[in-house]
Amino acid sequence: MRVLIVSTYDIAGGASRSSYRLHQSLLSEGIDSHILVQKKLSNDHSVVEVDSKLERKFAEIRPFIDYFPVRFYKKRTDTLFSPAYFPFSSIIKKINEINPDVVHLQWISGGMLKIKDLANIKAPIVWGLNDMWSFTGGCHYDEHCGRYQKSCGKCKVLGSSKEKDWSYRLQKQKQKSYSKIKNLTVVGHSKWLADCARNSSVFKDKNVVNMPTPIDIKRFEPLDKNFCRGIFNLPKNKKLILFGAMGPTSDKRKGFIELSEAIDMLDIDNVELIIFGSGKPKVPTELKFKTHYISRINDDISLQILYSAVDVMIVPSIQENLSNIILESLSCATPVVAFDIGGNGDMVKHKYNGYLAKAFDTSDLSVGIEWIINNSDYEQICLNSRKKIKEEFSNKVVANKYINFYSQLLKSS
Length: 413
What we know:
This protein folds into two domains: 2-214 and 394-412, Rossmann fold, CATH 3.40.50.2000; 225-392, Glycogen Phosphorylase B (Rossmann fold), CATH 3.40.50.2000. It is built from 13 helices and 13 strands. The mean pLDDT is 92. By secondary structure, it is α/β, with parallel strands linked by helices.
């Protein structure tokens, strides 16, 4: 079986890393898997770029050109919005030249290809959803507006007051384009996102299933806590709380404001906070506890060491699919406290391997942090964290789910 995973990048960003992990998991189970990318950042021979040098040059500026019209919406929010309107991509031609049995789309924004060109792919298409973009009018998260269920327009992310704005036209274009694809199966990587897709106006008539992305449990396994703290020069006599993301203090969706409120409510001593993903801001927010800032981490080994160094991981995101950070932290036997939203409940079982706070309730988030840090059964919670991931999200377990899924898909094609 030959599987081609299509992703804008191979190892840049959470969605791309999820794609690459799926690819590696399939390879380890004997599947002839390759990734086709717009921009290759690894030296993996099984990752394929477009052939043309000109196309590779265009790949560097495509995201900026694709996003350019969004800049005319002066009242837009910080949530990512991708039009996918930029033409002249040779990606579809390359896909058909490779001639895979299954084309597995992952994160294909950033001007990689036009939505209407998807109907020209000859092989059956599986579309793994890492966010909401595939069924909205362009936003990657809808900020809880819900208009994708009937018709986009008056886009909250664009800050638009027009019913038939750009988001309306783009979503209608998606609906029209998807109707021309003969064999399309949609995979929501969390139960929440699968339900969103089923309820959307563009995927309501498509087959939508739920399957997660995998994690390499050997790469993300627990290490000695004191050893790991020494590497990052962190105190060995404190309880350490971890928070991080891409743009952790600037991306409102990641919940830094909610985290700050929860931290201020904590009634515990001997605690310090670690924030990774960006350096210390010029004007840092005053927090109750001493805070260590660690810049963006690009390799799995450093992430493994950091997760192993701390006592608890906080994920206060406002909207979230299947968080890599939660998967990685739990795999390293570090419990997670998160809001009970999105796909968080797929990974965190309340008071078993972490704590699921009531949605957007910062006081309950604070209670969850204290529940983990002061818990007399803390070591068992850590063991539960690792156990949950090994049983349900390990690369072998998830890869075999996909292999069976692809096989059934090809039989019915």
